[in-house]
Specification:
alpha+beta, single chain, elongated, 112 residues, 24% strand
Length: 112
């Protein structure tokens, strides 16, 4: 994945789906016409699930990224709503550590 993270969505099991800016090349121009011998470099958007590893892309032009941010957001959110993959093991361990820390602080009367 390239580019800065625009937003994150949590899936049903707590794994994160990240939406990114992404540069990609395509043979389809902005009007939807395919060019066999010409490639175009575009700025677009893509999402990736850190739980199952699936990456989203546009079905319209068969590109490796979305050209439209709203469609990329909808695709990422739709995947997050349907996916039940667990977060990576390191992330699960960090969540357990934070939960244990908050629980101990609560027992000792401290806030977290």
């Amino acid at each position: 994945m390239s580019g800065e993270v625009i937003t994150r969505y949590a899936n049903r099991a707590g794994a994160v789906v990240e939406l990114h800016h992404q540069r990609f090349t395509t043979k389809t121009d902005y009007r939807g016409y395919y060019h066999d011998e010409t490639s175009f470099e575009l700025s677009g958007f893509n999402w990736r699930c850190l739980g199952c590893g699936v990456t989203g892309c546009s079905d319209i032009y068969k590109d490796r990224a979305y050209r439209d941010l709203d469609k990329a957001r909808a695709g990422g959110q739709e995947h997050a709503d349907a996916c039940s993959a667990l977060p990576p093991e390191e992330e699960q361990e960090e969540q357990r550590r934070r939960g244990l820390s908050a629980w101990v602080s609560g027992l000792l009367g401290g806030g977290s």
